[in-house]
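Aim 2 progress update. The chain analyzed this quarter is reproduced below.
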Amino acid sequence: MYAIIETGSKQYKVSEGDIITVEKLNVLEGESYTFENVLAINKGDDIKAGADAKGISVTATVLGEGKHKKVIVYKYKPKKGFHKKKGHRQPFTKLKIEKING
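Predicted C-alpha cells:
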C-alpha cells in the first residue's frame, strides 16, 4: 500500500515505514505531523485518486531537521571584471511515515 502526498509544492510516493526528507516544516522533533493533502492512494488492486481520495490522511513522526549540501551560485560576466559567488543550503525536515489512514 502506498500514497502520494503533496507538501512544499512537491509530490512524494510514500509507504508505511518510509523515511523521507521534505521542505522544512514548523514542527518540533519527536512530534507527529499529519498530511491532509493526499493526491492518491493504492491498496493492492484498489486505487483512489482525486475526489475519491478525500478524507484520507498520512501520519508521520518528525525525526529531525537539517540542511542539504551547499550549492554554489557563481555569476560571471566576461570582459567586465564582474564575479559574484554565493552559497545556499536548503533546510529540510526528516520524517518517518507511520500510518496511512484511509
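The mean pLDDT is 94. The two ends are 11 Å apart (CA to CA). These observations will guide the mutagenesis experiments scheduled for the next reporting period.
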